[in-house]
Amino acid sequence: MDALQPGDPRRVGPYRLTARLGAGGMGQVFLGVSPGGRKVAVKVIRAEHVSSPRFRARFAREVQAARRVGGFHTAPVVDADPDAESPWLVTAFIPGPSLHQVVSRQGPLEAGAVRGLGAGLAEGLAAIHACGVVHRDLKPGNVIMAEDGPRIIDFGIARPADAGSLTSAGVVVGTFAYMSPEQVRGERAEPAGDVFSLGCVLVYAATGQGPFDAPTIPAIVYRVVNEEPGLDGVPGDLRELVGACLAKTPADRPGVEEILDRLGTHATDPTVTAPIAAAPTVTSPADRPVTVETPTTPRPPHRQPPTATLTRTATEDGGAGPVAPARTPASARSTLPRRALVLGALGTAGLAAASYPVIRWLSADHPIATIDSDTSPVAFSPDGRTLATGSLDGPLRLWNVATRHTTTILTGHTDIVGALAFSPDGKTLASSSADRTVRLWDVTARRNTATFGDKSDASSVAFSPDGKTLATGGTEATVRLWDAATGRTTATLTSDPSSVDYVQSVAFSPDGRTLASGSSKGTAQLWDMATRRSTATLEHGSGVSSVAFSPDGRTLATGDDKGIVRLWDVATRRNTATLTSHQGKPQNIDSVAFSPDGRTLATGVGGNYRTVRLWDVASRRNTATFGDEDGDVVSVAFSPDGRTLASSCPAAKKVRLWKVR
Q: Which of 2, 8, 79, 137 does the annotation list as catalytic?
């Protein structure tokens, strides 16, 4: 990090710039501060490129690619203006050195750290490829060694896997020492090319040099295309896998899921094995990690995934990846065991090391995944890495979406879990239950950190945008606000103390200034969080079972027990649209959710029409209807990138993941 130079801008859009972070072929990257005081990384296109339509198109493509991926594996996009006089992109600031800096300063990584790094990067690539994007420039300088695991950055030359090139024929983009042979030749980039680059990065991490290093670029290119990689210094148990990644023919390289399987049988959690992360302190036998081994059943040949429903078993095959994964040579396919599950034993309220279901990805005319689980609510973590599910008998499950495995079972509740909510930083999960308690869970430590309640059913939970306040709804038409740090009640919001109805859903506006609550009496209440007073009563007409704010905070959606969804203008309190279908037939809207871009509204439908519906918010039209469930769809949730929708049907004991765009 360097000081700003005299010619550097001091402000880009609403962001104040404070230092230089680095530079690339397209532009300069600065450390900035948002109006709210958050650190961000601001990338500005160089002046010499501003007048070039090709570079503007490339920058717009970078913005689009980064928005599509988002989540834990990259630095999430905060803001962008590709059409500005000097186009710019703002991402969350991820503190930590690059892999290149770590190796340059400290030398090659230990074998265990290399395995953890490889598992983390493979998981990141799986998420990137699942969004239909190929990175094309994975290298040590584009890997940030954050405290919670490696992050893949710089989507400057990323592109959709099915997109045409914006460069001239034969033009090569990327860093030669880490390019695949096909990329060097200017051929179409595929996910298998990122696997080749991953192999190069792991060689660098283990030895301090690339597998094709040479004094000149022509010599590097010749070695990449024609010679075997230099693997001296790569640990013996990694050499075979890395060598397979560096196969000259794309079809001979393993897919990222198979790399995860191979590394997962040896490596612990990447957040523990990362070289800059502090090792956890083991204070008692109950705190020591417990490894639950899975049988090393031979892995079947790589093939397109079947459309069968998943069964709950710890030995089920994980299935194939969602974006044209590279094939594995026949000699290697049957030798890649499943990754082991590493769990922390957490005492009486800890993890239940019971059966661990597996997610199987399905073909395009089905939901992309089906989970057999007696689940009720669903919630994606803010980084999109984890899906949390509740249950009808108390336990919660956390699923790793990229690897298709459940990673954690949290026990403590003794009755139906009614609602789930992640804190904005993703570190805490809140759950409410018919056992009349609300619990907070440390997602990293996998333990229950607080239990509180008011002796009434808590049917809904929501964190404020700053994560400091938790809102819960329950009986007696009451909303309670809790200090998320201490578990103490800070306010009780009651619109009608004499009422016998109950609050079924709560939601904070994106700016945190307003709280919405929906009640069984048929109204939605708006509350001012500064004064803790009701500012409006929206007359929906029948029991409001779900509420949700649009991402811009201008619209509130309310769903009821008669199959009607209403859209409200928050500023004017007017009902601007009524969304109905199957009118006159028994049904109910148990859940509503806006997509991250605010263009689509998802509804979970019960009664006679047990489906998931998507609505175009602008045209008010029903654009898609998913599924034909055996029971009510009680919960829907969009992934942070907006490409996946999760839905839950407790009666059918299924959670489905749907590709929505």
A: 137
